[in-house]
Amino acid sequence: MGSFSFWHWAIVLLIIGVIAYAVLSARRKSSPTGELKGFGGWLILPMIGQTLSPIYALTTLAQNWKMREQFAAIPNGLVVYYGENTLTVAMLALEVVTIFAMYSKSYLFPRLFLIQWIALLVYIILDVVLVSAVFSIPAGSLFSGDEMGKTIGPIIAGFIWVLYMFKSKRVKNTFVNGSLSPAAFKHIEG
């Protein structure tokens, strides 16, 4: 169970390959006016993070699924179990919509990216309130030294990328389409 099998590596390489293909096929080689446009430069970093974000949500759901019996053994534990899973599924749905907006180069993408970052803050707060209220644990005790770093890091990084989404000329010139069309995955150049 502790080893990384051939199939795990195959899945990881497949995911990396799909991301690389999407980035390379969506990237504009050059703009006739010389302006920054398309998936290139710094935009590639949040694009990769956005593409991989559902994996974290799915991993969280899988881990919770394995721990269902442990939650059930604690009084009111299933309230926390279903509450956390509901929050995670809602976040996953928002991530998928944001990915569609990104690959279709929708003008909505920067706004959805901001909404997703705000949703992350709401997710963290609701999760802490839920666990604290149901288990009668002080909210501050839920954040040990390591947990605080794991929470604050993504919030700060997300804030930096949100600023980038609203200040970057490349973002402004790339996300100009008017819809969240599934056709974006057939022909990413849009």
Question: How are the SSEs placed, and which strands pair?
Answer:
Elements: H1 6-26, H2 44-66, H3 68-73, H4 77-103, H5 109-135, H6 145-167, H7 169-174
Helix pairs in contact: 2-4, 4-5, 5-6
Describe the structure.
The structure is a single chain. With 190 residues, the protein is mainly α. The protein has seven helices and no strands. The longest helix has 27 residues, at 77-103. The radius of gyration is 19 Å and the shape is globular.
Compact description:
This protein has 190 residues and is an all-alpha fold.
Following the backbone from N to C, one meets helices and strands in this order, namely: HHHHHHH
- The SS-based structural class is mainly alpha
The main β sheet shows up as: none
CA radius of gyration is: 19 Å
The dominant shape is globular
Please mark out the parts with pLDDT under 50 across 5 or more consecutive residues, or reply none: none
The helicity comes to: over 70%
How far apart are the termini? 44 Å
Number of helices: 7
Percent strand: under 5%
Indicate the mean pLDDT: 82
Q: Tell how many strands the DSSP assignment holds.
A: 0
Q: Descriptors for this entry?
A:
190 residues, globular, 0% strand
